[in-house]
Amino acid sequence: MTRFLITGAAGMLGQDLQQALAGREVTALSRADLDITDPDAVAAAVAGHDVVLNAAAYTKVDDAESHESDAHAVNARGPEVLATAAVAAGARLVHVSTDYVFDGSGTTPYAEDEPTDPIGAYGRTKAAGENAVRSVAPDSSYVVRAAWLYGAGGPNFAKTMVRLAATHDTVSVVTDQVGQPTWTGDLARQIVALVDADAPAGTYHGTNAGQGSWYDFTRAIFAEVGLDPERVRETDSSAFVRPAPRPAYSVLGHDGWSRAGLAPMRHWRDALHAAVEAGVLTA
Length: 283
Fold this sequence. Notes:
Layout (H helix, E strand, L loop, with lengths): L2 E5 L4 H9 L4 E5 L9 H8 L4 E4 L6 H4 L3 H22 L2 E7 L22 H16 L4 E6 L2 E2 L6 H9 L5 E4 L3 E2 L2 E2 H13 L5 E4 L6 E2 H11 L7 E4 L19 H5 L8 H10 L6
Parallel strand pairs: 1-2, 1-3, 3-4, 4-5, 5-10, 6-9, 7-12
Antiparallel strand pairs: 8-11
Helix pairs in contact: 1-7, 2-4, 4-5, 8-10
């Protein structure tokens, strides 16, 4: 039986990975359980496992601008340590990355092998993590880029919009950032399918299909939970000035899945419908 180790297991994706692996042999370690930057602790944790799923990350995008060294430790050094331990143990590593490794100036979906060009500290640290994993474990690692995640196991944009609807007549949401809303439940199952298929090592884009703006996503959320989508008003990014720049275009291509003989993830609207049916936005 394949023995799995999940790091970052208390996070939104980590919790859904545990569900996707129900009935399997799984060790689930949270940030409190394992410091992924500690080589000795990581080596001890990885020993005896066949697959390491790294869902641990420093995800405070704005804070990373002023704490880049902290973000680098978790997002770059940590994956390098995990990859080193995985190679030593003969285990495969799945490392979860992000759309922020691209600059967001594109107009067509980013291919898996497109050169990265992050525009902020968070993206720089995540790109460094990808490069470390590929360098240390080129033949036994998967880099799975995710984006616009929502799920039952933590705070996220979709839940925030539902909460705001309870106290605001209208909500204003940007139309000038486009991406792929992605349910962590779908992503977790896709990652498990990737490992189970013994797919070729490399980079894969773990996002639901299709595309939409945050405005489109919010209107869809409202419709799915029985609220009036007309309560969602259009605005643009100039109304929400933040320390870290956001990519304007975060649509990722999915050719890697077909090359590996796997189906890509379903359309984001279908995933949202299923997530709402499963009670994800009220969990």
